[in-house]
Amino acid sequence: MKIKNQLLQSALIACLTLPGLVMAADAKLTDEQVNEINAQFPMPSGKMLGDSCAACHGTLGAEFNEGMPPLAGMNRQHFIDLMKAFRQGDFPTIVMHDVAYVYSDAEIEAMADYFASLPAEQWPAPNVRESAFLNPDGTIKQIGGAQ
Ligand code: HEC
Questions:
Q1: Shortest CA distance to 59 belongs to which of 126, 16, 121, 110?
Q2: Would you tell me which of 48, 55, 68, 107 could form a disulfide with 44, CB atoms 3.0–4.6 Å apart?
Q3: Ligand 1 centroid from CA 86, angstroms
Q4: How far apart are CA 53 and CA 36, in angstroms?
């Protein structure tokens, strides 16, 4: 139940912040300008930056099901190359240009270290994971009351 609430919360945060990211993409700052702006603020940790990706890529970069590629355990250099390509708009993306657009080189590198350090574990597939609502025999769990 707790994990489900966290996922719902993350999805809500993504819905609220994405329109802002899309608007930022219209501003068309260069990579140098983005680095310059970010240099004026304290550097967040790789974990702090990377945790904002959880709404789509799963808690600790481990996807919940097959929806998004997992980031946990990703090769550091591959992550950096891809994030810079996303930032640059080197190829069309559904989401990632608008996400990557705001990160400086140092922030991308900090996230690369963070995700490379995480175990590349997948969450169990939905059909094998324990249901929050169903007992193993298919009967519905008692909802409500103390968990
Ligand atoms: C709103 C959903 C969403 C959020 C938030 C998000 N991503 Fe993504 N990510 C995607 C989608 C969708 C793709 C597939 C590429 C595309 O079309 O945008 C992707 C692909 C990627 C990939 C390529 C992985 C691979 O192996 O191909 C990387 C790396 C990545 N995202 C990093 C990040 C990081 C780092 C963050 C947080 C700073 C983040 N993403 C936040 C949706 C998201």
A1: 121
A2: 48
A3: 9
A4: 23
User: How many of the other CB atoms lie within 10 Å of CB of 1?
Assistant: 9
What number does the ligand 1 atom closest to the CA of 111 have? 35
Share of the chain above pLDDT 70, in %: 68
* Structure tokens, 7: 């996922």
pLDDT band for position 55 (cuts 50, 70, 90): confident
| CB of 100 closer than 6 angstroms to any ligand 1 atom | no
Structural domains for the chain: 2-117 (1.10.760.10)
State whether the beta carbon of 35 lies less than 6 angstroms from ligand 1: no
Kindly give the distance from the C-alpha atom of residue 47 to the centroid of ligand 1, in angstroms, as a whole number.
16
- Asked if residue 72 has its Cβ within 6 Å of ligand 1, the reply is no
Please tell me the distance from the alpha carbon of residue 146 to that of residue 38, in angstroms, as a whole number. Answer: 45
Q: What is the pLDDT of residues 61-100, one digit of tens each?
A: 887 665 678 898 899 999 999 999 999 999 899 999 999 9
